[in-house]
Amino acid sequence: MTPLLDVRGLRKYFPIRGGWLGGAPRMVRAVDGVSFQIASGEVLGLVGESGCGKTTVGRTVLRLLKPTEGSIRFEGEEIAALPDRALRPLRRKMQMIFQDPYASLNPRMRIADIVGEPLRIHRLAAGAALEERVVALLEQVGLGREDLARYPHEFSGGQRQRVGIARALAVSPALLIADEPLSALDVSIQAQVLNLLQDLRERHRLAFLFISHDLHLVRYFSDRVAVMYLGEIVEEAQVEALFTAPRHPYTEALLSAVPIPDPTRKRRRILLPGDVPNPADPPPGCRFHTRCPKAFNRCRVEAPRVTEPAPGHRAACHLAE
């Protein structure tokens, strides 16, 4: 089966200025050789520390950022090098839910205009039909007709995120990229919005790239999980396989930090020494070796290749071989 989204060798570098003597510009390797696939109706969770490149992956897949290198195939069509004009029809099929539900909404626009704008841009509805379509979208996310004339500042954080979800659904996309969609919300509101996303996924058979640092949410919502470290995917597996039998030391460290809601059970915490290396100057060999408690000499000089120690379970670690 052809995947809905097929990303191969994706790279996104950002130039930074040279030194005082005007040397050549250096490159921040925000995303450095990322590959993954998402099928129709599937949720891929993308996790990792802040600054590992998760958001850049999402924005580059949507072509909000132009990739430095690599292939992005959506519904079998290569879109990595498409000009902006040719991307417009694809915008209907790929939408994004942003992290900050207030910053992503225009404070000068009414909710009717915010949710209706994609319909007008793509000429999907006008007049009374447009208003009824907007009302239907708001009702899907738990709002209603009485909210049409209100402005973003009149809503709570959870309600604003519902508006953002309604806007993303307006053009009936096949893929939603959800970039930390719950991190700005209170825990009780997080549960409501996550259940809403789950319901919409089942109702519309939506595929998701679900970007988050909250492993509890990722485990609940995702089918598969990819773990990123310093611009690379170091492990990918079905959700239960990754949480019960991780094959990469970085994944083990992440999971050890997840609280267990049972006072009778204890988990050994794996504390990683040092800081994440500079993405403009990544270490040689395995990028995780400077912090890895299991590193040995080979890790310092040879980058690990991606292997499949179990069916559907991939890891970039010499120990996984």
User: Can you count the beta strands?
Assistant: 12
Q: What is the CATH fold-level name of the domain at 5-93 and 173-238?
A: Rossmann fold
Helix content: 25-40%
**Structure classification:** alpha/beta
- Taking strands numbered 1, 2, ... along the chain, how are they ordered across the largest sheet? 6-7-8-3-9-10-12-11
Instruction: Compute the separation of the termini in Å.
Output: 28 Å
- CATH level 1 name of the domain at 5-93 and 173-238: Alpha Beta
Major sheet: size, sense and barrel closure? 8 strands, mixed
Low-confidence stretches: none
Query: Total number of helical segments?
Result: 10
CATH architecture of the domain at 5-93 and 173-238: 3-Layer(aba) Sandwich
Q: Which homologous superfamily in CATH is the superfamily of the domain at 5-93 and 173-238? A: P-loop containing nucleotide triphosphate hydrolases
CA radius of gyration is 21 Å
What would you call the shape?
A: globular
Strand content: 15-25%
Average pLDDT works out at: 91
Please trace the helix and strand order, writing H or E for each element: EEEHEEHEHHHEHEHEEHHHEE
Describe the structure.
The chain is α/β, with parallel strands linked by helices and 321 residues long. The protein has a domain at 5-93 and 173-238: Rossmann fold, CATH 3.40.50. The chain is 31% helix and 23% strand. The strands form two sheets. The chain has an eight-stranded mixed β-sheet, sandwiched between helices. A four-stranded antiparallel β-sheet has the order 2-1-4-5. The chain is globular. The two termini are 28 Å apart. The mean pLDDT is 91.
